[in-house]
Amino acid sequence: MISINKVDQLYGGTQILWGLDLEIVPGSITCIMGRNGVGKTTLLKAIMGLLPIKSGEITMEGETLNKQSAEKRAYSGIGYVPQGRDIFPMLTVEENLRIGLPVRSKRTKDSPKDIPEKIFELFPVLKDMLHRRGGDLSGGQQQQLAIGRALVLEPKVLILDEPNEGIQPNIVKQIGDVILKLNAEEGLTVILVEQKLGFARRVGKEFRLMEKGRIVAADKMENLNDSLIKQYLAV
Amino acid sequence: MDIVLQQLVNGLTLGSVYGLIAIGYTMVYGIIGMINFAHGDVYMVSAYITAIAIALLTFFGIESFPIILIGTLFLTVAVTGAYGWVIERIAYRPLRNSSRLAVLISAIGMSLILQNYVQLSQGANQQGVPTLLTGAMRIEVGDGFVQITYMKLLILFISLLGMGVLTYVIQKTKLGRMCRATQQDRKMASILGIDTDKVISTVFVIGAMMAALAGVLVTLDYGAFDFYVGFIIGIKAFTAAVLGGIGSLPGAMLGGLILGLSEALFAGLISSDYKDVFSFSLLVLILVFRPSGLLGKPEVEKV
Ligand SMILES: Nc1ncnc2c1ncn2[C@@H]1O[C@H](COP(=O)(O)OP(=O)(O)O)[C@@H](O)[C@H]1O
Ligand SMILES: [Mg+2]
């Protein structure tokens, strides 16, 4: 689905990603794991077109994304929930959700006017908060909004960067359920950056371990063993 | 007493004009964080287009004032909007990822280019348009009266209408939502499929169109203009935008009205020779004591 081939990326003079290879299989839930600062967010930003890469290639369903702008990638079917959520604080919940409707109407036969009811079934709280400003929501509500907003695009791949950072346990569970449900029922491909081992094991089907800007281990989630954890995750 | 009322009426019309021009400064600042120093000159260009439009309509034998007014507004707003679009494309978009200083210098350059271009193509002398609407309304107040010309009433009406329509567009339409989202977080807007370059172009066009509304109205009222008229009024409108809180649309309109009113009162009650000094002192005071303005947020994180 998404292939990343030998990607190098630099911030100013500092190289962050080093010839990184990654293959995302359609219909999978891939957990990208690694200690703070290994380059997980940088990798996702490169996939989204938010950071230029120095060399290498990123493709989606065989098509090169390298030269595509971020908004084109939204139209190709990539939904992104950034670390820190980045909801529009001064827009209402409804307006936040509506931003993606033009992309949705290109990608589905749905009305370009209506937020799909599915979003409110997954996250009922958004319906109650429809006219509140994004900035007035709690962290957990903002995270649900950020995921709902990405789902409005009707993406083929949903990319989530540490969606559970600083969020209360019941909402963490709910987010996990939503990811599993969308994957099982709609075949949504998911790329998930996750630090919490429990959540990664519950939701992830594949894992990729990162260190110093490279993928250092890749396997099925059930094969994530203690020695790998000790070597690449324990702090 | 009636002098105060009279100056309030004058200040209101003046302020609505400042407000219209301030919109261009504030929206451009809101979306790309730059002060568009060429904006005053866009206003100046619109004065020339007004004169050309009036000449053109009169040439075709149109004499009815309402038709000339509507035709001139339409032509001037459209052509000035196109100027706004072109200016952004050639002077600012190529520098999108450059330092703010580079963009600032480009804006100053653009301002000089516009002045010289108009001076070369239209001549350096003062030009004028004929008075098309005369007459005034008098309102008795106690022993005296307050007078407001029909032209000033028209200015007030069209300015407020323009601001009302713009507020509606920004608050309630899809285009407005896209503008607000891009202003708050450009990266996130693009991730959700918004063509942010297009939105930025649109904001320049809107700003130029609002300045053109002011340009038509002031030119019709005042009659005379030259290639330098954008300078003072541009700085005044910029002051209004800073006063209201730069980046805030209602702030620009409110700032315009407050600046117009206080300037008119100062001119009427203290000294009309020093009213420009008054406005610029006000700018300095705001920058020192309340740089975020009346409705501005104390510097939210800018992307
Ligand atoms: N905007 C930036 N400018 C310079 N360096 C950065 C920037 N963002 C991140 N980095 C550096 O890149 C490295 C990887 O960061 P990041 O991708 O955020 O890591 P992770 O998400 O795995 O914690 C870190 O060393 C970080 O300091
Ligand atoms: Mg990160």
TrEMBL record, chain A:
Keywords: Amino-acid transport, ATP-binding, Nucleotide-binding, Transport
InterPro entries: AAA+_ATPase, ABC_transporter-like_ATP-bd, ABC_transptr_urea_ATP-bd_UrtE, BCAA_Transport_ATP-bd_LivF, P-loop_NTPase
GO biological process, one term: L-amino acid transport
PROSITE patterns documented for this protein: ABC_TRANSPORTER_2
Residues annotated as domain ABC transporter: 2-235
Highest taxon above the source species: Bacteria
Alphabetized SUPFAM superfamilies for the sequence: P-loop containing nucleoside triphosphate hydrolases
GO molecular function: ATP binding; ATP hydrolysis activity; branched-chain amino acid transmembrane transporter activity
Family indicated by similarity: Belongs to the ABC transporter superfamily.
Name of protein: Urea ABC transporter ATP-binding subunit UrtE
UniProt organism field: Marinomonas hwangdonensis
Name of the gene this protein is made from: urtE
TrEMBL record, chain B:
GO biological process: D-alanine transmembrane transport; L-alanine transport; L-isoleucine import across plasma membrane
Entry's Gene Ontology molecular function annotations: L-isoleucine transmembrane transporter activity; L-leucine transmembrane transporter activity; L-phenylalanine transmembrane transporter activity; L-valine transmembrane transporter activity
Source taxon at top rank: Bacteria
Record keyword Transmembrane helix present: yes
Compartment(s) where it occurs, according to its Swiss-Prot or TrEMBL record: Cell inner membrane
InterPro entries hit by this protein: ABC_transp_permease, BCAA_transport_permease
GO cellular component: plasma membrane
Membrane topology: Multi-pass membrane protein
Alphabetical keyword list: Amino-acid transport, Cell inner membrane, Cell membrane, Membrane, Transmembrane, Transmembrane helix, Transport
Family: Belongs to the binding-protein-dependent transport system permease family. LivHM subfamily.
Designated name of the protein: Branched-chain amino acid ABC transporter permease LivH
